[in-house]
Amino acid sequence: MTRIWPWLCAASVALSLFMLGLLLALLLTRGLGHFWPSTLEVATLDSGELIAGEAVRETALPQRDGKERLYFTANRDIDGARWRWVAIDSIASRQTPTKLLRLQRGPWGDFIGYLSAYEDGQQRLEGEAAWQALATALAAPANTRPPATLVLETADGQLIRQALADIHRAQRPNAMHPGEKLRYWAHGVWQFLSEGPRAANTGGGVWPAIFGTVLMVIVMSVIVMPFGVLAAIYLNEIAHQGRLTRLVRIGVRNLAGVPSIVYGVFGLGVFVYGIGSSVDQWFFEDTLPSPTFGTGGLLWASLTLALLTLPVVIVATEEGLARIPDSQREGAVALGATRLETLTRIVLPMAMPAMLTAVILAVARAAGEVAPLMLVGVAKLAPQMPLDGDFPYLHLERKFMHLGYHLFDTAFHGDDVQAAIPLVYATALLLVTIVLVLNLTAIFLRHYLRRQRGQPC
Amino acid sequence: MTCVLSTTFCDLSLHHAITMTQPPRLSSSAPRTLAEPRYQRPHRQRLDRLATSVITAGAFAVLAAILAIGIFLLWESLPLLAMDDMALINSLSPLAWGTLKAALAAMLFALPLALGAAVYTAMYMPARQRTRIKPLLEMMEAIPGVVIGFIAGLILAPWVERHLTVTLVLLVWLPASALVAGMLWHALHKRWRQRLPFSSAALWLIPWFALMVLLALWAAPLAEQYLLGEDLRRFLDLQLGIDYATRNAMIVGAAMGFAVIPSVYALAEDALSDVPPALLEGAQALGADRWQALWKVALPAAGPGIFSAVMIGAGRAVGETMIVLMASGNTALLSASPFEGMRSMAAAIAIEMPEAAPGSSNYHMLIFAALLLFGFTFVVNTLAETVRLRLRTRLKRMGGGA
Amino acid sequence: MLASNQGHNNMPHQDQSCLSIDAFSLAYAGKQALHELTLEIPRHRVTAFIGPSGCGKSTLLRAINRLHDLNDETSHQGRIMVEGIDIHSPDIDVSELRRRIGMVFQTPNPFPMSIYENVAFGLRLQGRTAKRKRDDIIEWALTSAALWDEVKDRLHQSAWQLSGGQQQRLVIARTLAVQPEILLLDEPASALDPVSTLKIEELICNLKSQLTLVLVTHNMQQAARVSDFTAFLSQGELIEYGPTDQLFTNPRLRHTENYITGRIN
Predict the structure, then answer these.
(1) Where does residue A149 rank: exposed (0-12), middle (13-18), buried (19+ CB within 10 A)?
(2) Any idea what the Cα angle at residue A178 is, between residues A172 and A179, rounded to 5°?
(3) Contact call for A327 and C160, based on CB within 8 A
(4) Considering only CB atoms, which chain C residues are within 8 Å of B1?
(5) Alpha carbon distance B163, A62 (integer Å)
(6) Is the ipTM of this complex over 0.90?
(7) In this structure, how many other beta carbons lie within 10 angstroms of the beta carbon of residue C72?
(8) What is the pLDDT of residues B334-373, one digit of tens each?
(9) Rg of the Cα trace of chain C?
(10) Nearest to A156 by CA among A79, A250, A67, A242
């Protein structure tokens, strides 16, 4: 026995690390791979039918021998579906024509096929000239593009007309060399980070969600930091270190273990239905019954998350305060410093890294938290940003978009989940990156803090 | 007789020492003495008192907010007393069952892994490696639930459905393969054993596991064909009458277990490494090997700490929302099958609460569910925390005494 | 002004006294730490408190600075008078009291700032001072603490880079900068090497021309070398108090003799 158990224990560590690595690798490859212009192919079936699209994956056929391949064929406006399963046996030949084109369009999602002509009122261009004209037109900013129309041809020869205005990007991946692909990829990543969602969240970027998350987290930090730090100072520097303080400390620590959804219920019941409705009755009577503050919004979400992250801030700050040796406080006091002077000149500067750690941990927690936000103010698509040029600039009552909720919503409530999954991967990767970077910073700070404390005397 | 140096040191030193000069004046006025008025700078004291009261007020605001949560939940649950008991039980029991089932599945998955990992890092890993691996594992805790839920619900669940045999085989084969690796290691030449020491087994087992997964992916379908002659899922469905839902308790268990591992691991590891090394060395000096020392000495000493780690893990598993929401299928069933879904209280709150009209019976019911979650986690965590603190002082005393 | 000139008389006279402790008792968390101590500490002399560890000598020293205020589980009876004023009287300004009664601790505790800022810390608490004047005071304080020559070229480096002995002298300089009248030293050399200890002792002797010094030490040679008067405490009680020469060469009580000859510890 004594030889078996240690191996199982070692296996647990290895398995945990293995799973973690697998998860991160999955997110990394799928999240970043989504933007890579992958090769498009045209498959000729035995029946003579032509299918143009991106080969996604292969699986065994359910009942028979052999395999089938999934193609992403796009063109939802033409054949009503974006995906097509094809048995591999039935494919006669596969080509990768360099002229095969992929367009990212507004309402209908991607198009895969050929560009047959480019018409801009005065002239009609065909062949390579049409592609050149399209590329130049798309290089210009969206509002200066000419009112042109494209004539597109699908692989099986159907012709459609497509307004240039709805097109965001065009690529001919089979004609690209790796350098071009890399540039296209980088541009895609940038668009993902800087643009709003399109096509019912299955395309475009996540900029409003990033912005909403950041804004919410900032408002939350502004609320939680003063209270958290004050409470930590009280517990560590002022309170009588008796049974009551110990009890309060355990209580605060336990709050960190209370499920986040409970905070959401509290936020909804007290902030939204309680305070929000009253505020509406007093100040926004003219717009009732449509609520202003009486519904979820940025302020209530920030307040709820502030409450949620309060224990994190208190515990981390208190840890920093407790690490400051008493001799430092006594030294200051013996020189005639009052408690406030000791605090502001010695204790707080020394606890600075700890407070920084606290705010980073709180932000990391808040950025990843979704459940309470579903109750107090997040929106799947917010029509207006909560920060804009209209007075009073910061609109605390507005709903906002949040990365985590955006992820949940796109993955579970979209009309075509399959098509959205690559984008969900990218969003998940972004979220994980943000949270992990924040946590790493906190760990580094804490490490630095401990080393610094170890040095004196 | 005792004091050789009865001539004072000062007499000798005065000749070569720097004599203290008159200090420069601090202010133009004459130096103050204590006999003068004592309120030289009264606003300093006033400011100090003001700051103290501001800090105290802030602390009490925090305390009030904490209390407000409990009071609000209690107050809003009161109307339920007027309601029909049966209706309440009927609507709550599937949720309670779902919560328990999900938590149980998660703990079944997480506990062996977390505790095993804690034992290994605390007992066998060299200190240097430990300082790297531990933060890495604790980092798992930072991965947002919504991401884990997405992977579990949309990626893992369909994959498992397609590769059910592989999954079930892996559940047994992976731990067994670690033992195989152990046997192979003992059979290795000494030089090789030194190159792959047991103390870094956690690292070199990772590629081994990758290999084993590939092996299972290749071998399991063959075995399935050979033994059953058909797909396991169809076999379960047709021969045994077991329904298989894509998103089921097994998936939730794995996903939530993954989320729970780091918190259980971190606390258990802390408890184990707080055990004074002298205790272990004492046992080893008596001829026990490392595992016996752990089993007979460290585990009993760290027992309460491990217990509190398990409690805190259970608290997390009960309250986790997004993972259950995304990976469970959200069917309010009273079924014990690991292949069927469930709906937990937290998930129910997240879905139904925004639609429930304030004041309606459903609204109060959901708030009552929140109260249950709040009460349960609060009790569990308080218990865990008191046990942990008590253990810590006890171990310190043991370490000091030893 | 030499100590030996004063050595012939016995106890410090009432009007020479700068600090008088009058039936002072202190309890900590319900446990009596000091029992009705009464002693007069003379102005511009070095008074040493000796005694076995846990005898209350440090507690008494901290009480003079009212540091036990920081712990709210203590209670006291009796009086400590500084220049005729009760330091526990309600209208006293504790910060001002602590400025006038400097204190140096067992382990050096420089603040995590530059050498210059460490010395300027107390001055800044007193309000604005012109930079020139502040520089003068800092130079004077560092010179008085026999540290100026060692640090004058690196005043703006971190104080934590100094050696232990230098750190302790920096702490003394920091205390001197606010010009206290009494300097309390709580085993100031116990964490230092012999050379640094010698420097600190030398410094103590030089400072008494300006200040009243009270020194707690567990090192009897040190008490004999630097102090003019010595008080022997045991279990919170004052056993014997007198001129150092007399206490060490001819103790009145058996208990004292046992302690200074090392028969008890």
Answers:
(1) middle
(2) 100
(3) no
(4) 249, 261
(5) 12
(6) no
(7) 12
(8) 777 777 778 888 888 988 888 888 878 888 888 989 999 9
(9) 18
(10) A79
